[in-house]
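quick one, 428 residues, struct below
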Amino acid sequence: MTSQKLALYGGPKTIKTEFKRYNSIGIEEEQAVKKVVESGVLSQFLGAWHEDFYGGSKVKEFEEQCAKYFDVKHAITVNSWTSGLIAAVGAIGIEPGDEVIVTPWTMSASATAILHWNAIPVFADIDPETFNLCPKSVEANISPYTKAIMVVDIFGQSADMDELMAIAEKHRLKVISDTAQAPGALYKGKYAGTIAHVGGYSLNYHKHIHTGEGGIIVTNDDDIAERLQLIRNHAEVVVGDKGVSNLSNMIGYNFRLGEIECAMGIEQLKKLGGFVKSRQSLANRLTEGLKGLRGLRTPVVKADRTHVYYVYPLILDLEELDASRDQIHAALQAEGVAVGKRYQNIHLLPMYQKKMAYGSNGFPWTSDICHRDVNYSKGVCPTAEELNDSTYLGFGMCVYDLSNDDIDLIIKAFKKVWSNIEEIKNNS
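---
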């Protein structure tokens, strides 16, 4: 590699203009939305036991198309994936004080959806290659009070579902797949999110397919599907007329997705396969271009699954590089590569460190429903903590509408930084 003065120290910047922002909305979505607006029916849900309890025509059509696409019996739309997670935890019958094992390496809603039902999140560590829940750590964190596992398919690749489902079966636990970032990813030929008892995807604006906000919950369980639909739409006033006898967690909400969003979703779903292939092609090009850079590990994709690259994760070998992540991050940023140097360690958020969620007295941890003192101190998830503290870098593939030329510029910037590692170390 030919050395060139780094932008960090006054040299020319490799990437001089910001990449085009990702926008998957096209004329098809515009026309679909126009038809809905012209119809005047922007939502058709009624919060009562009525033929419109399940929503309007576009809601039903989108749900049918999602069920067919992901090859599941039921797909239920919601107004956000956070709503979807809350509904999923309630639908599987979680009781106050029950423990649910979850990863710390995720968006905060994965764990707060557990707290929402006054259950207790227990954080298990992650696999250092895939960043998903480590089955061994999950097994080690199971207690007599564990009732479920929330598996997060982080960055776009499925977790080790066979192992995790086997653990769940052994201990009679339910499994929720938070597949917000991995719609279209495959695990042994099945779509990620469909192997658990209940799973689903985010339709947030920076995901592979989006409707602005929204989510899709998927399940093959008829009872869970009914409970999801009830929680989504004012369960407490519906259960009597519908003849529902199990009133556990039948506290309902307005988690309903509108006709406009579902009309967009129908068109977006048609494009998902193309979006995934395009992003995989770009990621493979990036991986090939970064080969040979010492001390840099590109994404590890397991042989039995695919990756859809919501995030392109990288790991630094600091001993081999003899430079800090902060130094390398600063150099890449100066060259125009919008790479992040942290993700999440949500067990270290103030809520968990102070054990304070509802009110000011530490509920639910200080209440009688909490069976034991759950440890959230630093050190309980060493792999996730080391990644966040010192070795992880990530590039948001879903943020930008990237071309091959853009990928080549990113590769050029990395090579420029790596050719100047000695200078970076000397200027620390």
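The chain has a mean pLDDT of 96.
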